[in-house]
Amino acid sequence: MDAVEKELVFVATADEEGTPNVVPIGFARPLDDRTILIADNYMKKTIRNLHENPRIALIPQNARECPYQFKGTVEIFKSGKYFDMVVEWAQNVMTELEPKSAILMKVEEIYSVKPGPEAGEKVA
Question: Quick one: CATH architecture of 2-112?
């Protein structure tokens, strides 16, 4: 989870027809071992996909040092505690940011992406 907070992550989603979309995200941080908060600052396809299909996967940018893929489901908040957290966090980094929503990812599975015989194995 340290790599999720410290690095860019790549987020994968799919629409209701299964068309994939992958984007780099700079605002993702773990809240605990099974929950990741993501700020929706500039999302278009990603947020549309999540409204249609709440399944999500992410991988840290430096997969050599953190060879894990996190999969789960999301809830989207446009107000309340998580939204307020995202606004404060984003504006502390860049005052001009105006997040549109907070995405709360519940991590349900973790897979290895380390090259070799363990690639693709479920680790948690």
Answer: Roll (2.30)
Burial 4-23 (b: 16+ CB within 10 A, else e): beebebbbbbbeeeeeebee
The residue to which tokens 């409204």 are assigned: 51
Q: Which amino acid is at 120?
A: G
For the chain, give every domain's residue range: 2-112
The C-alpha atoms of residue 39 and residue 89 are separated, in whole angstroms, by 9
Scanning the structure block, which residue is given the tokens 């989603």? 13
Residue position matching structure tokens 């929706």 = 40
Best mean pLDDT range from 36-45, 47-56, 92-101: 47-56
**Three-state SS for 90?**
helix
Rounded Cα distance between 9 and 106, Å, is: 16
- φ, ψ of residue 89 to 5 degrees: the values are -60, -50
pLDDT digits 0-9 by tens, 58-91: 999 988 888 999 999 999 999 999 999 999 988 8
Residue among 89, 109, 111, 108 at smallest CA distance from 98 = 89
